[in-house]
Predict the structure.
Amino acid sequence: MATETAGQPQTTGPAATAPARTPDVRPMRADARRNYERLLTEARTAFTEHGTDTSLEDIARRAGVGIGTLYRHFPNRTALMGAVFQGEVDALLTHARELADAPQPCSALVEWLRAIITHATTYRGLSRALMTASADDSSGMARCSVPMREAGGALLTRAQQAGAVRPDVSISDLMQLTNGIALAAEESPDDPQLADRLLTLTLRGLKGDKH
């Protein structure tokens, strides 16, 4: 119900309740931020040198913090992995946007898939983790896999519309395929050309009738 006070409408009753406030997001304290950054740095080094199954206790020790501090920032291994790989994922997403208007849609898609394989083989165990995360959007790695599927889906759709890729190919299958190729390459370190050969062979099954 509204009444007039000094020429201005005044509302009473339920509608007069104060507007809902957005909860304040407290910034991370300086010491917590330093711990967070040290953990990411040490995790990135450890994952590169020893693989993604390296000891979390060792990562915490190298960062100069306790394991409890690590778990406060990253509740599980996949959450830590997702944070570590976010920079590489951002670069791949940027690359996908750069390829969005490429004159050859199929070549653009293949270039991006090749970049994913290169990224996945940088850290031993990453390709297996990405394969697992692709089936679980609640995983700590979903922050990587979900936007990657969306970016790749746009490139795939454009290639399909051009008739360069079969219409029954899905981005989920392609992402699993690239991770599988990366895993095969990871298991064959003495054959650096294996990933590219497998991807080239795969293209024969991707091409549409017009190409």
